[in-house]
Write a structure and sequence with these properties.
5-stranded parallel beta sheet, putative 2-phosphosulfolactate phosphatase, 11 strands, alpha/beta, about 40% helix
Length: about 240
């Protein structure tokens, strides 16, 4: 375990309001939407894509200069788009080299929009928890960090809370200080069984729509070791 990383402090926030407050404070923000936007973004950038997050389906549908359109509403693929918000579908696809992708989802891209104005915006999930935390622990993104849970339509989402806990736990291992709320989220992450995440409302909705493989993918930790960073309006990846 690393020694104390003096000067670096990580906190936790939730939802659109918490994200906007963190952005106004000028911290580096990690947007966590484990089921599935942050996971999908990680897969896309691992394949060399640039990912432009937009809030509305209309904006995604009319966005120019893109190779693929990815999106969902209510967890279902948007009609006419190339892919749904499915990391396994995209992992199996052959994308054009250096593709530009526009992405719109029910929760994740809306929260990314709320984070505008933050010092940095990263996308984090279970699949890249260590990569994101290790990058932040270098201090290259500033000395204040907020890991934010997207939730579902304004409500708490246990999978996002646990994925945020995985990132915060790794930050603590790297010697980063955590505020009181972040410490509570880590404690919950450490005691919450994965099986409870497989039974929550989001998981049941995905299973009902035939996305069981996405659940397995999204809950696997540290399988996509990339750091999606928003640069010039698009997420790009660092390994």
């Amino acid at each position: 375990m690393a020694g104390k990383n003096y000067g670096l402090i990580a906190g936790y926030a939730a939802g659109e309001r918490g994200t906007r407050e963190a952005a106004r404070e000028g911290v580096a923000i990690v947007v966590v939407d484990a089921f599935r936007a942050s996971t999908t973004i990680a897969v896309l950038v691992s394949k060399g894509a640039r990912v432009i997050p937009v809030a509305s389906i209309e904006e995604a549908a009319t966005h120019t200069g893109v190779d693929y359109r990815v999106g969902e509403r209510g967890s279902s693929k948007v009609r006419g788009f190339d892919f749904g918000n499915s990391p396994t579908e995209i992992e199996a696809a052959e994308l054009a080299p250096g593709a530009t992708v526009v992405l719109s989802t029910t929760n994740g891209t809306r929260i990314i929009g709320a984070a505008r104005g933050a010092a940095e915006i990263l996308a984090g999930a279970f699949v890249n928890a260590h990569a994101v935390a290790d990058e932040l622990a270098t201090g290259a993104y500033g000395d204040r960090i907020a890991v934010v849970e997207c939730g579902w339509e304004g409500r708490r989402a246990s999978e996002d809370e646990s994925a945020a806990g995985a990132i915060l736990y790794r930050l603590r291992e790297r010697g980063v200080g955590l505020d009181e709320r972040a410490r509570r989220v880590v404690d919950l992450y450490l005691v919450r069984p994965e099986k409870t995440l497989r039974r929550n409302s989001a998981a049941r909705r995905l299973a009902r729509l035939g996305y069981e493989r996405d659940l397995d993918f999204c809950l696997a930790e540290n399988t996509v070791p990339v750091v999606p960073r928003l640069e010039g309006g698009a997420f790009v990846g660092r390994r």
